[in-house]
Amino acid sequence: MRLIARRAAGLVAAALPLAAGAHGNVLSGEGAHAPIWLSQGLFAAAWLTYLIGAARRSPGLPRQLLFHGAMALTGFALFGPFDEWADSSTAMHIAQHMLLIVGVAPLAVLARPLPQWRSCIGRAADIVWRPLLRASRHPSACALLHAAAIWIWHAPGPYMAAVADNWLHVAEHASFLFTGWLFWWSVLRAGRQDALAAALALLFTATHTGMLGALLTFAGQPLYARESQDLWDQQLAGLVMWIPGGGIYLLAAAWAGYRWLSQAKAKVLFEGA
Length: 273
What we know:
By secondary structure, this protein is mainly alpha-helical. It has helices at about 1-25, 35-55, 60-80, 80-90, 90-110, 115-120, 125-135, 140-155, 155-165, 165-190, 195-220, 230-270.
């Protein structure tokens, strides 16, 4: 328990300065930052409960590294100087979104932290986990839910409303993380019988995010005028979404397609024998 306490204390000491960097902290007295404080608290609580759960039920070093990498990337994207840059640049704002969607979410899925959280929290959270795990058995539905979050929050009205209001800003990021986690869970943890559905869901996501990126790149005027008066900044934002993001989806789709083809080949060989 002493080791757990030392780890927890070290984590809190490291996380609080990072979390306070962009929006102040809970001692600043700035009421407008209440949603930021809430998200910081949930972020720290998620990390702390994982550490306690990992001490009780070890996930193995690779998964621990994946989880800590996901959390560090979350802190970097949301609670440090990166978030300040995102407030004044469309390109940096879209990069922030992509870090959450194609960085944090798949890393969190590969880390498989649910057993550690459950070991710390107990069975009380099963009422939340079980419906989500059942939903993740349907890659197409998860891809549609994720697509809705992406397109709604990147429409000019909701996008600028989130820039101006911290509650909406936190809701935007939470929706990306939640639907992104559910989507990546559905495609990366799909059984072999669902490999084709996973590949198609990934191709669908690569296509519609590429379309959104192209729309931002080739628009004749800034769509988010209050945030960026420079068309080149929006064009760069579109390229960030279109190329690196699309590349990750396509690589994952190739992996899922390979799994499906391997299964189909094995089935043909078995039936031929």
